[in-house]
Design a protein that fits this description.
Length: about 700
């Protein structure tokens, strides 16, 4: 027979499941707790904390101590998991992300053991929030996607929509605006959109603001009646978003009023939470706009203290940006540049692309940088804003870019600079960026397949830069690991066996010039750490010496590997990666730039002493294009030079010696099979054919 107390507990649980939290709280407070068993008391504690957290009332872990201890001893894993989950929720609301993550992870293990799918999905959502706050975008997306899939499988449409809203918010915060818009359309077009949580209105308004529709966004926010907000955290978020939109529109006074209201609510909820750090940092931005620099510094300091305690890296980088602006205004040029550099590197590391572009734009307009660096930062910011169709920023940057062009002369490569063929739009874009950043003291990472021309472009950048020092190139993969440090840093006489005389290292030789580090992916972790130190301090010390020597060089690195994948496998340092790629220039393969093939053929033939007009080059190129040329520039050069030699440098004989279709297919297939170690699936994917076709051609051409 079910007791009255058990009935009351079941009724409270039902009210919680139906989100009738105020009614549940009344029911809890009306219960007579004097006659409760230990089990009933522990269950009531869970309900009480759950309801209060749902209403935005922050609790303390002590209110769950009994429930945690009791359910652990009785092996009631489902209730023990819920107690762990609620502890994680408490710590999350208090801004203690690491403790929250620990409790959520433990609760998920027990929920999984009990086959409680909805609870697992809820935990994944909370863990995604922590990943998001820590700047781990991909992890957060994966966790939210897992959570959503669970809700789909159990037909929980309301929570599925809530997860979609979170994905939308996450994409927006990290600057993936178009992806965010796609998710927003999916939400609004969903058959169950009427179940959507109220703050989707905030997200829609923020979406409009990001794209420059400030007035519409503000009207939409204000049309939302604040009395509809059923918990204090939602109210704080409302005022934060309203203030943020006013700030984006440059309306500082209304922005300040809204943010102050949001801050007042947030401080009552949890004075050390992420919401407090966000709002305080935005207030710092507002005061900077109002030219009240002392107050801007005060709020930036307070925001940074909270965000550092939480390891909230997005806000940490944003505070550093404020410091950069403040020091620039105060005339502290060196420290201002340092703050902007740190902010840009951290935003880059955590893939916060919108804030990264904003910071580059802000830094470029402070007057701290010479024209080359200013143009480079404006160019990179514009590339992002144009890719996401943020037109108000694109227009603003275009105006500033034109002013910078008036202040500088166009880059003219010296006569001895290597020739970079760029007829296609892809290569023109790469060369344009190379010429712009050649004038800036920024590290450059060249990426692309083997043979795409990275070495050539590195030399071209150096020649365009006007550096007085030498171009020093090293292929790190070609140096035995035991010798790398000595080669790069040099050594004193007697530093090791065989060191019969002192020797300057390659880094020292590159002083006032360019150091080109090819195959950077092969750099051992210990050497990465030393190079990172050199880039920070601009000093080196030879092996066996105690003397520090000043060095100043531009670093260009190159790789044909996916460095981010190496980072995920802990085979490459993330901090070194982001330090060496202040600018990334990706070189396309010939498959991606077919328009360049005729110009390349003509250039290579001319270099062999053959006369070749444009139509002849196009005719030769058509043969390569028709066979999906699988090589890159280096292979094309070798092929053309071989044809020129075999034809006796006679253009007519060259045409006659061009291989037949079958010969081309055979050589192309042989090359790709060797490249992919006879992985037929990879070769088929490269050529856009089926594996069956590849097997047939292998037999046809007798390649086995």
């Amino acid at each position: 027979m079910i007791t009255e107390t058990a009935k009351d507990l079941l009724r409270i649980r039902s009210l919680i499941l139906n989100r009738e939290y105020e009614s549940a709280l009344i029911a809890i407070n009306s219960m007579n707790t004097s006659q409760l068993t230990e089990n009933e008391k522990a269950l009531l504690d869970l309900a009480f904390v759950n309801v209060n957290l749902s209403l935005g009332n922050i609790q303390k872990k002590t209110q769950l101590e009994f429930a945690l201890s009791y359910f652990e001893k009785t092996n009631q894993h489902d209730h023990y998991a819920m107690a762990k989950y609620l502890c994680g929720w408490m710590y999350l609301e208090q801004g203690e992300l690491l403790k929250a993550q620990e409790y959520f992870t433990e609760s998920r293990v027990y929920f999984k053991r009990c086959n409680l799918d909805a609870e697992q999905a809820r935990v994944l959502s909370r863990l995604a929030y922590i990943s998001f706050k820590s700047g781990n975008l991909q992890t957060a997306i994966q966790q939210l996607t897992q959570s959503r899939q669970i809700y789909v499988e159990i037909n929980d449409y309301k929570n599925e929509l809530s997860i979609l809203k979170n994905i939308h918010t996450l994409y927006y915060t990290h600057g993936k605006l178009k992806e965010a818009e796609c998710v927003l359309k999916e939400i609004v077009g969903n058959d169950h959109f009427d179940l959507m949580p109220i703050n989707i209105s905030f997200n829609i308004a923020l979406s409009k603001a990001h794209f420059g529709e400030f007035a519409t966004a503000i009207i939409q926010m204000k049309s939302f009646k604040i009395k509809k907000v059923n918990d204090t955290r939602q109210a704080a978020i409302y005022y934060e978003y309203l203030g943020w939109i006013h700030l984006l529109a440059g309306e500082y006074q209304p922005a300040l009023e809204a943010l102050q209201q949001g801050l007042s609510i947030s401080l009552e909820i949890a004075p050390k939470s992420d919401l407090v750090s966000q709002i305080k940092r935005r207030i710092a931005d507002v005061y900077f706009g109002l030219r009240q620099y002392d107050k801007s510094k005060q709020f930036a300091d307070e925001a940074l203290q909270v965000s550092e305690n939480l390891n909230e890296r997005v806000e940490i980088a944003a505070c550093w940006r404020v410091y950069g602006q403040l020091d620039a205004i105060a005339g502290k040029e060196e420290s201002a540049r340092e703050w902007f550099t740190k902010s840009i590197e951290l935003f880059s590391m955590i893939e916060s692309n919108y804030d990264l572009a904003v910071t580059r734009h802000v830094a470029a307009t402070t007057g701290l940088y010479h024209n080359g660096e200013r143009r480079a930062m404006l160019y990179l910011a514009r590339e992002y804003f144009a890719s996401e169709d943020v037109r108000h920023y694109v227009k603003k940057i275009d105006d500033e870019f034109q002013k910078s062009l008036q202040d500088s002369k166009p880059v003219k490569p010296p006569q001895n600079a290597p020739v970079v063929i760029a007829a296609s739009a892809e290569m023109k874009k790469a060369v344009e960026l190379a010429e712009i950043v050649s004038q800036a003291d920024m590290t450059i990472l060249l990426t692309g397949d083997t043979g795409t021309g990275k070495d050539l472009l590195a030399q071209y950048i150096h020649d365009c830069s006007g550096c007085k020092g030498p171009f020093v190139a090293v292929n790190i993969a070609g140096i035995p690991e035991s010798m790398i440090e000595g080669e790069l840093f040099g050594h004193r006489k007697g530093a090791f066996t065989g060191a019969s005389h002192a020797r300057a290292g390659l880094l020292e030789m590159a002083h006032n010039g360019t150091f080109y580090l090819n195959e950077v992916n092969s750099t051992p972790p210990a050497i990465q750490a030393k190079l990172l130190d050199v880039l920070e301090r601009r000093k080196i010390r030879r092996l066996g010496e105690n003397i520090w020597r000043d060095v100043s060089f531009r670093l260009i690195s190159a790789t044909n590997h996916e460095l981010e994948e190496l980072i995920r496998r802990n085979e490459f340092r993330a901090d070194f990666y982001h330090r060496i790629k202040q600018v990334e220039i990706a070189l396309p393969s010939l498959l991606e730039r077919p328009d360049d093939i005729p110009a390349l053929i003509r250039f290579f033939l001319t270099n062999t002493g053959m006369e070749c007009d444009e139509s002849q080059a196009q005719a030769i190129a058509s043969r390569f294009e028709s066979h999906l040329w699988s090589g890159n520039v280096r292979e094309l050069k070798a092929e053309i030079e071989k044809l020129a030699l075999l034809s006796g440098r006679n253009i007519n004989k060259l045409f006659d010696s061009l291989p037949t279709d079958d010969e081309y297919q055979k050589e192309q297939l042989r090359s790709l099979l060797e490249k992919y170690n006879w992985n037929r699936s990879r070769v088929a994917q490269e050529l856009g054919l089926t594996e069956g076709t590849i097997r047939h051609r292998i037999r046809k051409f007798k390649l086995l």
